[in-house]
Model the fold of this input.
Amino acid sequence: LLNDVNPEENPDIPTIAKYFSTKGRYEEVNPHLIEDILAVNTSILQPPSAQCREIHLTAIIRHGTRYPTTKNVKKMQKLYDLVRGSAPAKDSWLRELQTQWTMWYTEDMDGRLVQKGVNDHRHLAVRLSKLFPSLISEKKLRGGLIKFITSSKHRCVNSTLSFKAGLTELWTIRDKEFEHAVNDALMRFFDQCTRFLEEVDNNPSAMTELDKFREGPEMKRVEEKIADRLGVEYNLITDDMAEAAFYLCAYEFAIKTVNSPWCRLFDEVDAQVMEYANDLKQYWKRGYGYDINSKSSCILFHDLFSRLDKAVSENQLGQPVTEAVTVQIGHAETLLPLLTLLGFFNDSDALTSTNYATQTQRSFRTSHMLPYAANLLFVLYDCGGGDLRLQPLLNEKPVPFPGLTDQKASMPLYQEVKKHYNDLLQGCDFETECQLFKNPG
Ligand SMILES: O=P(O)(O)O[C@H]1[C@H](OP(=O)(O)O)[C@@H](OP(=O)(O)O)[C@H](O)[C@@H](O)[C@H]1OP(=O)(O)O
Done:
C-alpha cells in the first residue's frame, strides 16, 4: 500500500533519494515504476504520422545497480568504526547505528552488479520490448537482428546477460543462446584516449573546482551538522566522511530498498550540497569541464551514426535492416561524454566551486540523467516518402536534440540531425582528438 502513496511521502524512500546522482535508483527518475516495474507509456512516442514505422534502435545503457567500489568501501568502513566508537547516543536512530547496523560491505565487492541490478536490466528489456514491439521482438531476436555489445567490466557483462534474460524469459526461449561482443574501444573509450588520460584522468589539477568545493563553506557546514548529529568532534567529520555517510544511505536504499539510519545524517539542504559535489566531479571529469572529455567519445558517436546510415541505406534499397537493434552496455562515463558531445544539459554557466548558490536550477544534474540502468536511445523511423526521422530518448522519455529547431514532437528529420552535427560527423576523429600533442589548427 505504501507504494500507492506519493513517493515524496513514502517513509520507505529517503527524502533525499532524489539527490543521489550516479548512485541513484532508476525508479527515482521514473517514479511510476515503483508501483509497476513493467509499466510503459507508449503515448509519449508520438511519431508525426501513423505511417511512421521504427526501422532501427540503438540503446546505450549504463549497467544496473551495483555494490560500492573498493575506494568507497574503505571510506564507509572508516566512518562505521568512528560511529561505533563514539559515546552511546540517546537518540534511538543513532543508537541503532551504534549497536544494530553492521558494516556488511567488503572491499572485494568492488562495484559488482547486485541482484537489484540484474532486475533493473531484466525489467528494462521487457519495457523496451513493449515500447518498440516491432523491433525488440522474439522474431528479430531469434533472427539474429538484435546485437549486444558490452564493456568488459563484470557489472556490464552481467547487465548484458540480465537484459538478454529479460527477453528470453518474456518469450520463454530455452533452445537458443544469444551472444554478445565485448568491446572496450567503444564502451570504455576513455581508457584508450591518451589526451584524456594525461590531461584529465591522471592530472591532479584537473579536478580543482571539486577539490575547492570539498574544502569550501557549503561542505564544511554539512560536515559540522553531521558531527553535531553524531555527537562527535568537528575535526573527525571530513568531506570523505560526509561522502561515506551519503553513500551508505544511497547504497542501503539502492541495493536493499531500505531507508537506513545513515540517511538521518542529512537534511535536504545537506543532500543538495552533496549532489552538487558529485555533479562537479562528473562535469569536470566527464562533462563540459574539458573539451577532451566529450571528444573522447568520438568513436562511439561515429559508431552510432554509421549504424544509423547503414539502416537508412538498407531500408532505402528495400532490404531488411540487418541490425534492427543494437544494445550497448557501459558506464556512466560512457553515456555522459556522448550526452555532452551532443550538447545535452549544457548550462550557460560552468559549474564551479564558487557558484553553487546560483546553480540550483542547473540542467547538468546527474541525479536526473544517470541513475543505475540509465539509457540513451536513438530510434530511427521511416515515415514514408523518404521521410526519415530520428528520436532520442533518455531514460524512456523523449528528449529534443539541443539547438535543433525542427523539433516536431522531438522527432526531427534524420537529415536535419546530420546537418546539425555536421562538423562532428566530418571531424571528431578519435585518433586525432586523443593524440597527446594535438596539431594546432
Ligand atoms: O565514486 P565511485 O568509485 O563509485 O566512482 C566510480 C564510478 O561511479 P560513479 O562515479 O559513476 O557513480 C564508476 O562508474 P560506473 O558507471 O561504472 O558506476 C566508475 O566505473 C569507477 O571507475 C569509479 O569512477 P572514478 O571516476 O574512478 O571514481
Q: What stands out?
A: The first helix runs from residue 32 to 35. The first strand starts at residue 53 and ends at 62. The mean pLDDT is 95. The radius of gyration is 23 Å.
